[in-house]
From TrEMBL, chain A:
<feature type="transmembrane region" description="Helical">
    <location>
        <begin position="50"/>
        <end position="70"/>
    </location>
</feature>
<dbReference type="InterPro" id="IPR035906">
    <property type="entry name" value="MetI-like_sf"/>
</dbReference>
<feature type="transmembrane region" description="Helical">
    <location>
        <begin position="210"/>
        <end position="232"/>
    </location>
</feature>
<feature type="transmembrane region" description="Helical">
    <location>
        <begin position="311"/>
        <end position="333"/>
    </location>
</feature>
<dbReference type="GO" id="GO:0055085">
    <property type="term" value="P:transmembrane transport"/>
</dbReference>
<dbReference type="GO" id="GO:0005886">
    <property type="term" value="C:plasma membrane"/>
</dbReference>
<comment type="similarity">
    <text>Belongs to the binding-protein-dependent transport system permease family.</text>
</comment>
<keyword id="KW-0812">Transmembrane</keyword>
<dbReference type="InterPro" id="IPR051393">
    <property type="entry name" value="ABC_transporter_permease"/>
</dbReference>
UniProtKB/TrEMBL annotation, chain B:
<feature type="transmembrane region" description="Helical">
    <location>
        <begin position="353"/>
        <end position="372"/>
    </location>
</feature>
<dbReference type="GO" id="GO:0055085">
    <property type="term" value="P:transmembrane transport"/>
</dbReference>
<feature type="transmembrane region" description="Helical">
    <location>
        <begin position="185"/>
        <end position="207"/>
    </location>
</feature>
<feature type="transmembrane region" description="Helical">
    <location>
        <begin position="213"/>
        <end position="235"/>
    </location>
</feature>
<feature type="transmembrane region" description="Helical">
    <location>
        <begin position="247"/>
        <end position="266"/>
    </location>
</feature>
<protein>
    <submittedName>
        <fullName>L-arabinose transport system permease protein AraQ</fullName>
    </submittedName>
</protein>
<keyword id="KW-0472">Membrane</keyword>
<keyword id="KW-1133">Transmembrane helix</keyword>
<feature type="transmembrane region" description="Helical">
    <location>
        <begin position="295"/>
        <end position="316"/>
    </location>
</feature>
Amino acid sequence: MHPALQGLLTIAIGVSGCIGYFYFSNLILDRFIFPAKGPNAGRNITRANMVRPWLFLLPAIIALGLYLAYPVIETLRLSLTERVPVPGGGPGEYAYNWVGAENYVKMMAEPKFWEAMRNNMLWLIVVPAFSTAFGLLAAQLTDRLSWGNVAKSLIFMPMAISFVGASVIWKLVYDARPEGQEQIGILNAIVTSFGGEPQTWLTIPFWNSFFLMVVLIWIQTGFAMVILSAALRGIPEETVEAAIVDGANPFQIFFKIKVPQIKSTIMVVWTTITLVVLKVFDIVFAMTNGQWETQVLANYMFDKLFRANDWGIGSASAMVIMLLVTPILVWNVRNARKEMR
Amino acid sequence: MDNIAGSKSSLQWAVQLSVIALVLLWLFPTVGLLVSSFRTADQIATSGWWKAMFPSEQNLVIRAADPDDEGVQVQQGDLWVIEGNLFALDGRSQGEISVWGTSSREIDAYAAGETAELKDGQQLTVEANGDYRLTAPEQMTGRGQRVFLTAVAPPEFTLDNYHSMLLDPNNSEGMAKAFFNTLTVTIPATVIPILIAAFAAYALAWMDFPGRAILIAIVVGLLVVPLQLALIPLLKFHNNIGIGKGYLGVWLAHTGFGLPLAIYLLRNYMAGLPRDIIENAKVDGASDFQIFTRIILPLSFPALASFAIFQFLWTWNDLLVAKVFLIDASGETTVMTNKIVELLGTRGGNWEILATAAFVSIAMPLLVFFAMQRYLVRGLLAGSVK
């Protein structure tokens, strides 16, 4: 069957399946299990209303449990086991032997892992800092501009572009030709026009990681700007007016009046971008594939799982990513609970 | 307050200029790729894309018409003459020649309008607009005379790249198939989580039951679980239940990964709807199911649209999930992002191919972005600002 047709069929089955499930499960509950009539009508209505939330939640709970909660536990288990082919078994048959922390020990002994860790830490500091700073700058500058919305929309645009598309865009910027030829990458064109030598930017160890980070900063700045711009609009006018009356200059107003009032939003933006950074895979995969010392954890994990076929170490590195995410997870959950009270 | 802060006009100017600089800086890379996708391989390789917008001085080598071709040579009196326009021969619309020559060592031997003496008594005149006249005392044979030009040519753009990447069925690197595959992944993966999430969000927002607070906390927690953890366990699971790699697997995976955000966004929005409406409906005897489908769902349209855009952009732009759950060894089900990564590997220097492929994939999200930006911004704000 043609995949497009299959897609349409899936939409039809999926949508009608969902609606059918919700409709008929409610119907069955109200008509047959706890009918709202007869001697027990009152009790039945109460009981039906106790069950109903779970009917509404069931598909979501199954999907969340199977696709997000179970994998966390399973990955933890896999990271503590070693996958070996079953002797005499078919090509797809494997046994999982318990090895304790051995995968972690092996992983820690690999220089590539530490390279990925070091780079990830650099990414974690640089990308959220610059994205948030540029975002705040753009939000403040465009705030009272007549064409501010157009400017914002253009800075926000990279959000819609895929990481892979962005990688192609920036690879053209970093393109390098041998010396003496016409440079078609803008960065080298600028360097050579000032008399410098053309550089192959992506192969210079250590600094090349920063050239990759630029891509993510370019994408995430728009996100930071949109959120922070809304926060800036939410600042009570009186506080700014009072500062103007007191003779504060625009810089003082920005740093002493506005920024302190949107501190919590800055934190939210920072942590959201941190989460994106921890999972960054596409950019490194498409631009350098971890060569020239640009490896990061997510790409390292992909290498281990699908190139080296080592599920043990692959899962162990996935657990490292999970570990790094956990503080933000706890912080988010605590904030959400505080709000609900 | 505007006029107070605006009294410092020099500051206003600085602000205007910095915003212009920032916007240009942000647009520049994308524009570069877009312009490149409309240029030929030759043009891209010989000059930077930023020069493509302006008339540029180019060195061209163009061969005059072959004397052996029928009707090219005409006899005028005792002379054999070949006439024509060099730019027309090269398939260019126009240009302006400053100097020219007939040998690669002396490409600037003559100015436009001058006449060159060639071997065997032949004479060649080239005008600034490309018209040339070659005369000889005897009938000419062999290939056409080569002319080296230095000319200012207007910018030229071509749609050939898009034609070959999208419409040419013989191009094995074409994007048409990958485009439809991406579409096939995206639409069900956007529609199905919305429905499941909407019911769950209603229960979490408006129904009272024990464990509600904990469930919400769990959703918030799952919001940040890296999907890297899910790859192997789910691939194993899909293989065990017989789905293997394929569309069904990738739809299910995207549904699962999209649900936490969907539930979170929709719950926040629904919880903010006025309580009166729902209580009045209840008093009037409406069931929860009716309240949900008749009142809540229509009122939640902005939140539904926000999430739909997120999920669409995310599934359209995704590489990792498609690589793990969809693309098998046959490569029949490849999506655009994967195709581009492959092209980056095999055609690293062919920017006309890369740029076009990238823009085929970027065009749709950009369209959605500019058309529905309002909902996107609203969704972002609902998802983050507390």
